[in-house]
Amino acid sequence: GRYVVTANKEVMAKHGPELLALAAKNGVDILYEASVGGGIPIISPLKRDLCANEISSVRAIINGTTNYILTRMSRDGLDFDAALAQAQDLGYAEADPTNDIDGHDAAYKVAILASLAFRTRVRLEDVHREGIRRLAARDFRYARELGYAIKLLAVARREDSSVQVRVHATLVPEDELLAKVDGALNAVEIEGDLTGKVLFQGAGAGSLPTSSAVMADVLDAARAIVQGWRPFPWRYAADLAVRPLAQLVTRYYIRLEVADRPGVLAGIARAFGDHQVSIASVIQKETDEAAQTAELVIMTHQAQEEAVQATLAQVRDLPQVVSVGNFLRVDG
Predict the structure, then answer these.
(1) Whose CA is closest to 36, among 209, 208, 237?
(2) Would you call 14 a catalytic residue per the annotation?
(3) pLDDT tens-digit profile of 41-77?
(4) Which of residues 174, 204, 234 is at a domain's end?
(5) What range defines the domain where residue 306 resides?
(6) Catalytic residue among 9, 25, 47, 109
Protein backbone atom coordinates (compact mmCIF):
# COMPACT_ATOMS: atom_id res chain seq x y z
CA GLY A 1 0.00 0.00 0.00
CA ARG A 2 0.95 3.65 -0.43
CA TYR A 3 0.22 6.70 1.71
CA VAL A 4 -1.99 9.27 0.00
CA VAL A 5 -2.11 13.02 0.74
CA THR A 6 -5.11 14.84 -0.70
CA ALA A 7 -6.92 18.18 -0.52
CA ASN A 8 -9.96 16.82 -2.39
CA LYS A 9 -12.97 17.54 -0.16
CA GLU A 10 -15.54 16.10 -2.57
CA VAL A 11 -13.83 12.69 -2.69
CA MET A 12 -13.41 12.58 1.10
CA ALA A 13 -17.02 13.69 1.72
CA LYS A 14 -18.46 11.11 -0.66
CA HIS A 15 -16.07 8.17 -0.17
CA GLY A 16 -13.81 9.01 2.78
CA PRO A 17 -14.79 6.26 5.26
CA GLU A 18 -14.50 3.52 2.61
CA LEU A 19 -11.13 4.81 1.40
CA LEU A 20 -9.82 5.17 4.96
CA ALA A 21 -10.92 1.62 5.80
CA LEU A 22 -9.17 0.33 2.67
CA ALA A 23 -6.00 2.20 3.56
CA ALA A 24 -6.08 0.79 7.11
CA LYS A 25 -6.52 -2.73 5.73
CA ASN A 26 -3.31 -2.22 3.74
CA GLY A 27 -1.37 -0.78 6.68
CA VAL A 28 -1.23 2.81 5.36
CA ASP A 29 -3.36 5.94 5.62
CA ILE A 30 -5.01 8.77 3.68
CA LEU A 31 -4.11 12.21 5.03
CA TYR A 32 -6.51 15.03 4.17
CA GLU A 33 -5.84 18.04 6.40
CA ALA A 34 -6.12 20.44 3.44
CA SER A 35 -9.62 19.22 2.53
CA VAL A 36 -11.22 21.43 5.23
CA GLY A 37 -10.21 24.89 6.39
CA GLY A 38 -7.13 25.48 4.23
CA GLY A 39 -4.30 26.35 6.62
CA ILE A 40 -6.37 25.79 9.79
CA PRO A 41 -5.27 22.60 11.54
CA ILE A 42 -8.59 20.85 12.24
CA ILE A 43 -8.46 17.28 10.89
CA SER A 44 -5.39 16.32 12.93
CA PRO A 45 -6.70 17.83 16.20
CA LEU A 46 -9.96 15.90 15.77
CA LYS A 47 -8.03 12.66 15.19
CA ARG A 48 -5.48 13.21 17.97
CA ASP A 49 -5.72 16.14 20.39
CA LEU A 50 -9.48 15.90 20.92
CA CYS A 51 -9.81 12.11 20.71
CA ALA A 52 -10.50 11.77 24.47
CA ASN A 53 -13.60 13.97 24.10
CA GLU A 54 -17.16 13.05 23.34
CA ILE A 55 -17.87 15.82 20.85
CA SER A 56 -21.41 17.18 20.89
CA SER A 57 -21.25 19.90 18.25
CA VAL A 58 -19.31 21.37 15.35
CA ARG A 59 -20.15 24.89 14.16
CA ALA A 60 -18.13 26.34 11.33
CA ILE A 61 -17.66 29.11 8.81
CA ILE A 62 -15.85 27.03 6.19
CA ASN A 63 -16.31 28.82 2.90
CA GLY A 64 -14.20 31.93 2.43
CA THR A 65 -16.04 33.09 -0.69
CA THR A 66 -19.42 33.33 0.99
CA ASN A 67 -17.96 34.80 4.16
CA TYR A 68 -16.33 37.56 2.09
CA ILE A 69 -19.62 38.25 0.28
CA LEU A 70 -21.60 38.39 3.53
CA THR A 71 -18.99 40.67 5.12
CA ARG A 72 -19.28 43.15 2.24
CA MET A 73 -23.07 43.05 2.41
CA SER A 74 -22.95 43.69 6.15
CA ARG A 75 -20.24 46.37 6.29
CA ASP A 76 -20.83 48.21 3.02
CA GLY A 77 -24.56 47.71 2.53
CA LEU A 78 -24.01 46.04 -0.86
CA ASP A 79 -26.71 43.90 -2.39
CA PHE A 80 -25.90 40.27 -3.15
CA ASP A 81 -25.08 40.71 -6.85
CA ALA A 82 -22.70 43.63 -6.21
CA ALA A 83 -20.90 41.78 -3.40
CA LEU A 84 -20.55 38.67 -5.57
CA ALA A 85 -19.14 40.72 -8.45
CA GLN A 86 -16.59 42.27 -6.09
CA ALA A 87 -15.57 38.81 -4.83
CA GLN A 88 -15.12 37.65 -8.43
CA ASP A 89 -13.03 40.72 -9.32
CA LEU A 90 -10.71 39.99 -6.38
CA GLY A 91 -10.42 36.29 -7.23
CA TYR A 92 -12.33 35.06 -4.17
CA ALA A 93 -15.20 33.68 -6.29
CA GLU A 94 -15.13 31.58 -9.45
CA ALA A 95 -16.75 32.69 -12.70
CA ASP A 96 -19.41 30.08 -11.87
CA PRO A 97 -19.81 30.54 -8.09
CA THR A 98 -22.58 27.93 -7.67
CA ASN A 99 -20.47 25.54 -5.62
CA ASP A 100 -19.80 28.25 -3.03
CA ILE A 101 -22.93 30.40 -2.89
CA ASP A 102 -25.36 27.46 -2.92
CA GLY A 103 -23.57 25.77 -0.02
CA HIS A 104 -22.14 22.71 -1.80
CA ASP A 105 -18.55 23.41 -0.73
CA ALA A 106 -19.53 23.89 2.92
CA ALA A 107 -21.68 20.73 2.80
CA TYR A 108 -18.70 18.64 1.65
CA LYS A 109 -16.58 20.01 4.46
CA VAL A 110 -19.11 19.62 7.27
CA ALA A 111 -19.81 16.03 6.19
CA ILE A 112 -16.08 15.34 6.64
CA LEU A 113 -15.94 17.10 10.02
CA ALA A 114 -19.11 15.42 11.33
CA SER A 115 -17.93 11.94 10.31
CA LEU A 116 -14.63 12.54 12.07
CA ALA A 117 -16.02 14.28 15.17
CA PHE A 118 -18.81 11.78 15.82
CA ARG A 119 -16.88 8.70 14.60
CA THR A 120 -19.65 7.76 12.24
CA ARG A 121 -20.57 7.92 8.57
CA VAL A 122 -22.27 11.18 7.57
CA ARG A 123 -23.22 11.03 3.90
CA LEU A 124 -23.55 14.10 1.72
CA GLU A 125 -27.27 13.46 1.32
CA ASP A 126 -27.59 13.62 5.13
CA VAL A 127 -26.60 17.31 5.07
CA HIS A 128 -29.42 19.84 4.74
CA ARG A 129 -28.08 22.55 2.44
CA GLU A 130 -29.18 26.10 1.60
CA GLY A 131 -27.20 28.93 0.01
CA ILE A 132 -27.10 32.70 0.40
CA ARG A 133 -28.81 33.95 -2.79
CA ARG A 134 -31.99 35.17 -1.09
CA LEU A 135 -30.21 37.46 1.37
CA ALA A 136 -30.74 41.21 0.93
CA ALA A 137 -28.75 44.13 2.31
CA ARG A 138 -31.64 45.07 4.59
CA ASP A 139 -31.50 41.65 6.28
CA PHE A 140 -28.06 42.61 7.59
CA ARG A 141 -29.34 45.99 8.85
CA TYR A 142 -32.26 44.39 10.64
CA ALA A 143 -30.10 41.59 12.06
CA ARG A 144 -27.62 44.13 13.44
CA GLU A 145 -30.47 46.08 15.10
CA LEU A 146 -31.57 42.82 16.73
CA GLY A 147 -28.03 41.99 17.92
CA TYR A 148 -27.02 39.40 15.33
CA ALA A 149 -24.58 38.84 12.47
CA ILE A 150 -25.52 36.74 9.44
CA LYS A 151 -23.15 33.91 8.52
CA LEU A 152 -23.28 30.88 6.24
CA LEU A 153 -22.97 28.44 9.13
CA ALA A 154 -22.27 24.72 8.90
CA VAL A 155 -23.67 22.99 11.98
CA ALA A 156 -23.36 19.37 13.09
CA ARG A 157 -24.85 18.29 16.41
CA ARG A 158 -25.09 14.95 18.14
CA GLU A 159 -27.88 14.12 20.56
CA ASP A 160 -27.77 10.62 22.06
CA SER A 161 -27.69 8.23 19.10
CA SER A 162 -28.61 10.71 16.35
CA VAL A 163 -26.96 13.54 14.45
CA GLN A 164 -28.25 16.56 12.56
CA VAL A 165 -26.06 18.27 9.96
CA ARG A 166 -27.00 21.44 8.10
CA VAL A 167 -25.62 24.37 6.11
CA HIS A 168 -27.58 27.61 5.75
CA ALA A 169 -27.47 31.35 6.34
CA THR A 170 -27.84 31.85 10.09
CA LEU A 171 -28.32 34.60 12.64
CA VAL A 172 -25.40 34.36 15.10
CA PRO A 173 -25.44 36.52 18.28
CA GLU A 174 -22.96 39.40 17.87
CA ASP A 175 -21.17 38.58 21.12
CA GLU A 176 -20.11 35.14 19.86
CA LEU A 177 -16.61 34.70 18.41
CA LEU A 178 -18.01 33.17 15.21
CA ALA A 179 -19.96 36.38 14.56
CA LYS A 180 -16.67 38.29 14.39
CA VAL A 181 -15.03 36.06 11.74
CA ASP A 182 -15.04 38.32 8.68
CA GLY A 183 -13.65 38.55 5.16
CA ALA A 184 -12.28 35.36 3.63
CA LEU A 185 -11.35 33.86 7.00
CA ASN A 186 -12.63 30.46 8.16
CA ALA A 187 -13.34 29.27 11.70
CA VAL A 188 -14.36 25.97 13.28
CA GLU A 189 -15.81 25.72 16.78
CA ILE A 190 -15.72 22.29 18.44
CA GLU A 191 -17.51 21.49 21.70
CA GLY A 192 -16.28 18.49 23.68
CA ASP A 193 -17.24 17.15 27.08
CA LEU A 194 -13.70 17.70 28.42
CA THR A 195 -12.51 20.81 26.57
CA GLY A 196 -15.75 22.74 26.36
CA LYS A 197 -15.76 25.02 23.31
CA VAL A 198 -12.53 25.50 21.34
CA LEU A 199 -12.18 27.68 18.25
CA PHE A 200 -9.80 27.23 15.30
CA GLN A 201 -9.56 30.29 13.02
CA GLY A 202 -7.42 31.28 10.06
CA ALA A 203 -7.04 31.48 6.29
CA GLY A 204 -9.39 28.96 4.73
CA ALA A 205 -7.98 28.99 1.21
CA GLY A 206 -5.07 30.15 -0.90
CA SER A 207 -1.87 28.54 -2.12
CA LEU A 208 0.23 29.21 0.98
CA PRO A 209 -2.27 28.06 3.66
CA THR A 210 -3.13 24.97 1.59
CA SER A 211 0.56 24.23 1.08
CA SER A 212 1.05 24.38 4.84
CA ALA A 213 -1.63 21.73 5.39
CA VAL A 214 -0.46 19.50 2.54
CA MET A 215 3.19 19.60 3.65
CA ALA A 216 2.21 18.76 7.24
CA ASP A 217 0.53 15.62 5.93
CA VAL A 218 3.49 14.78 3.67
CA LEU A 219 5.86 15.05 6.64
CA ASP A 220 3.56 12.91 8.79
CA ALA A 221 3.51 10.25 6.08
CA ALA A 222 7.31 10.41 5.72
CA ARG A 223 7.79 9.99 9.48
CA ALA A 224 5.40 7.07 9.52
CA ILE A 225 7.31 5.32 6.72
CA VAL A 226 10.75 5.93 8.26
CA GLN A 227 9.75 5.07 11.83
CA GLY A 228 7.36 2.27 10.98
CA TRP A 229 4.21 3.66 12.57
CA ARG A 230 0.91 4.95 11.24
CA PRO A 231 -0.47 8.45 11.82
CA PHE A 232 -3.53 8.63 14.06
CA PRO A 233 -6.28 6.90 12.06
CA TRP A 234 -9.95 7.77 11.71
CA ARG A 235 -11.90 5.81 14.30
CA TYR A 236 -15.33 4.48 13.36
CA ALA A 237 -17.64 3.77 16.31
CA ALA A 238 -21.19 3.18 15.01
CA ASP A 239 -23.81 4.34 12.56
CA LEU A 240 -25.94 7.15 13.97
CA ALA A 241 -29.47 7.98 12.88
CA VAL A 242 -29.91 11.25 10.99
CA ARG A 243 -32.34 13.58 12.73
CA PRO A 244 -34.51 15.37 10.13
CA LEU A 245 -34.44 19.16 9.94
CA ALA A 246 -38.18 19.17 10.68
CA GLN A 247 -37.27 18.30 14.30
CA LEU A 248 -34.94 21.29 14.76
CA VAL A 249 -35.99 23.61 17.58
CA THR A 250 -34.62 27.15 17.48
CA ARG A 251 -35.64 30.80 17.07
CA TYR A 252 -36.52 32.26 13.67
CA TYR A 253 -36.30 35.58 11.81
CA ILE A 254 -39.04 36.18 9.25
CA ARG A 255 -39.29 39.21 6.95
CA LEU A 256 -42.65 39.88 5.32
CA GLU A 257 -44.00 42.42 2.85
CA VAL A 258 -47.64 43.10 3.69
CA ALA A 259 -50.48 45.41 2.75
CA ASP A 260 -50.27 48.62 4.80
CA ARG A 261 -53.76 48.63 6.26
CA PRO A 262 -55.50 47.87 9.58
CA GLY A 263 -56.05 44.26 10.63
CA VAL A 264 -53.02 42.79 8.90
CA LEU A 265 -51.24 41.78 12.10
CA ALA A 266 -54.29 39.97 13.43
CA GLY A 267 -54.39 37.59 10.45
CA ILE A 268 -50.66 36.92 10.65
CA ALA A 269 -50.78 36.33 14.41
CA ARG A 270 -53.66 33.90 13.91
CA ALA A 271 -51.57 31.86 11.45
CA PHE A 272 -48.71 31.67 13.94
CA GLY A 273 -51.09 30.67 16.72
CA ASP A 274 -52.67 27.93 14.61
CA HIS A 275 -49.31 26.13 14.62
CA GLN A 276 -48.26 27.00 18.21
CA VAL A 277 -45.42 29.25 17.03
CA SER A 278 -44.96 32.00 19.61
CA ILE A 279 -44.02 35.49 18.37
CA ALA A 280 -41.30 37.25 20.42
CA SER A 281 -41.40 40.59 18.58
CA VAL A 282 -42.85 42.31 15.52
CA ILE A 283 -41.17 45.42 14.11
CA GLN A 284 -42.54 47.46 11.22
CA LYS A 285 -39.69 48.61 9.02
CA GLU A 286 -39.87 50.32 5.63
CA THR A 287 -43.16 51.52 4.16
CA ASP A 288 -43.82 51.96 0.43
CA GLU A 289 -46.52 54.61 0.24
CA ALA A 290 -46.93 54.27 -3.52
CA ALA A 291 -47.51 50.51 -3.34
CA GLN A 292 -49.27 50.82 0.04
CA THR A 293 -47.14 48.08 1.53
CA ALA A 294 -45.06 47.76 4.68
CA GLU A 295 -42.24 45.48 5.74
CA LEU A 296 -42.52 43.48 8.96
CA VAL A 297 -39.70 41.70 10.78
CA ILE A 298 -40.88 38.94 13.10
CA MET A 299 -38.72 37.12 15.64
CA THR A 300 -40.13 33.96 17.18
CA HIS A 301 -39.49 32.24 20.47
CA GLN A 302 -38.11 28.69 20.32
CA ALA A 303 -40.18 26.73 17.82
CA GLN A 304 -39.98 23.52 15.83
CA GLU A 305 -38.97 23.78 12.18
CA GLU A 306 -41.93 21.74 11.00
CA ALA A 307 -44.37 24.09 12.71
CA VAL A 308 -42.61 27.20 11.38
CA GLN A 309 -42.69 25.86 7.81
CA ALA A 310 -46.41 25.13 8.15
CA THR A 311 -46.92 28.65 9.49
CA LEU A 312 -45.08 30.19 6.53
CA ALA A 313 -47.16 28.16 4.08
CA GLN A 314 -50.34 29.53 5.69
CA VAL A 315 -48.95 33.09 5.85
CA ARG A 316 -48.09 33.02 2.12
CA ASP A 317 -51.74 32.31 1.33
CA LEU A 318 -53.06 35.28 3.31
CA PRO A 319 -54.48 37.98 0.99
CA GLN A 320 -52.81 40.75 3.00
CA VAL A 321 -49.32 39.20 2.62
CA VAL A 322 -47.53 40.28 -0.54
CA SER A 323 -44.47 38.06 -0.04
CA VAL A 324 -42.26 36.27 2.46
CA GLY A 325 -39.04 38.19 1.87
CA ASN A 326 -36.75 35.96 3.91
CA PHE A 327 -36.62 33.34 6.63
CA LEU A 328 -33.52 32.66 8.74
CA ARG A 329 -32.72 30.40 11.66
CA VAL A 330 -30.92 31.54 14.80
CA ASP A 331 -28.03 29.51 16.21
CA GLY A 332 -26.39 30.39 19.48
Answers:
(1) 209
(2) no
(3) 999 999 999 999 999 999 999 999 999 999 999 999 9
(4) 204
(5) 245-330
(6) 109
